[in-house]
C-alpha cells in the first residue's frame, strides 16, 4: 500500500485503479463539442455506462481504453481535447484536494521548495494519474512515467500524452509558479520506455 501521508493530495487508489479525474472532464468536454450521442458511444466502448462519481477509483484499463477511443475517434482534435481535459482535472485536484492552508503555505515558500513538495506529493499519489506506470522524478523539472498505461494503447510518431502534460502544467502553475510550462519530450505511444515530461519556466521567468 502506498502512503498518502503528505496531507496535500487526493484519495488512496488501489493497485490498477486511477482517479476519476482522468475520466470526468472528458465526459463534459465531449458532450460540449460532439454531443451526448457521440460522447456516450466512446464511453460505452470503454465500458462506462455513465460518468463515475468524482471521488471514485476507476480501473486503469477502462481509463486507458477511453483515452484510446477518443484518440481513434478524433485524432486531429486529440491534442486540444486532452489538453483541455487535463487542465480541468488539475483544477479539480487543486480546488478539491489541496486545502486552503496548504495552498497558502505553498504560495509563501520559495518556489523551488514548493515545486519539490508538489512533485514529492505527486509521486506519493502517482496511482491517481499514472496507474500501474512507474512515476519517477529525475529532477524538479523532469518527470518520467515508465510503461504509462494511458499511452500503451495508442500508437503515434510523436508524444501524445497531452492530458498528463496539461495536468502537470496546470497543477504546477496553480500551486507553485504561474509561468511553468510542461512539455512531453518522449512517449511510450511513440515507442519509448517511458513518457518524459519536462517542466520549465517560461523564457522570461527565473530559470529552474
Ligand atoms: Zn506519453
TrEMBL record:
In the record, biological process GO terms are: bacteriochlorophyll biosynthetic process; photosynthesis
| All residue ranges annotated as the 4-vinyl reductase 4VR domain in the record | 140-201
**By its UniProt entry, which Gene3D superfamilies does this protein fall under?**
Trafficking protein particle complex subunit 3
The UniProt entry, under PANTHER family, shows: DNA-DIRECTED RNA POLYMERASE SUBUNIT I (PTHR35090), SLR0144 PROTEIN (PTHR35090:SF1)
Report what the protein is called.
Answer: V4R domain protein
Q: Which organism is it from?
A: Roseivivax jejudonensis
